[in-house]
Amino acid sequence: MNTLKQPNKILGRNVISTLETVDIQTGERKALAQFDELIEAPNWTIDGKRLIYNSLGRLYSFDISILESTIIDTRYATQCNNDHVLSPDNTQIAVSHHTQEDGHSRIYVLPLKGGNPVLITPMAPSYLHGWSPDGSTLAYCAERNGQYDIYTIPVTGGVETQLTDSPSLDDGPEYSPDGKHIWFNSVRTGLMQVWRMNADGSEQTQMTFDESNSWFPHVSPNGESVAFISYYKDDVAPGDHPANKHVELRQMSCAGGEFRTLVKLFGGQGTINVNSWSPDSKQLAFVSYQLKNID
Asked: Which of 137, 180, 182, 221 lies at 20 to 30 Å from 153 by C-alpha?
């Protein structure tokens, strides 16, 4: 079981965070800003002008042109983790917020400009990861009866649909841009690997086969590439995606095959939990970390 899927409050880390981009073709890294606190999981807006990230339970909008952040008013949802996802038209944002009543993660939807959150998943814990391209459905990882599987639910709420049924951890579901597939990661074959299935849960297919633990596949807007984060095999248990590890950001074709390493960095949890492709599919945004010196 993935213990990192069960936090009861949002915790900081003793780190310096650097918000960066990498050019997919050249591998050139560009540091946009450095923060003296934990920030995580940048979403790129469809106009290419902003990055949405979370920090210590709150959401922020980073203006790329002036390199400045502003807080997003999420009202009572002030314990948001790094599972936020933008709606296809970017008018709304869905978040995983740890409710005050029991500390469990539930999914809420609110306007991207800020406003009142609307509860979508009364059952908990539920961890958001994907929003269908037609705007109708959310995909998420949830623990039900002691087992973590992948579920979908109408964005307006209602009855959830279970797509996977494995005693091992299935996590990170995200739709392809054409809505035909859901990409996810699963430990069912021993190590954490990248998988793909049809949007209805059929034809679950393993897509990576290397000796690493790979998490959070994100498909590029043009539907050609998938990016993911990989931990070295001996550094972590297959079901964990901890912070403060040496990791790689990797890219491969959506048809499968060999991967290429884009970036080697110190990071992990928070680096690329959400889809952070640029709208033109030419860059990825991510967060790297440095440990602060403790006197």
From this structure: 221
Contact 241, 215 (CB under 8 A): yes
How many residues does the structure list for the chain?
295
Q: Residues 95, 59: contact at Cβ < 8 Å?
A: yes
pLDDT at 295: 55
**How many CB atoms neighbour CB 223 within 10 A?**
14
Ramachandran angles phi, psi of 41, nearest 5°: 55, 75
Which phi and psi angles does 3 have, rounded to 5°? -65, -25
The conformational region for residue 276 under phi > 0 = left, psi -120 to 50 = alpha, else beta, is alpha
- Split at pLDDT 50, 70, 90, the class of 12 is confident
Tell me the C-alpha to C-alpha distance, in Å, between residue 60 and each of 54, 112, 154, 184: 6, 10, 26, 26
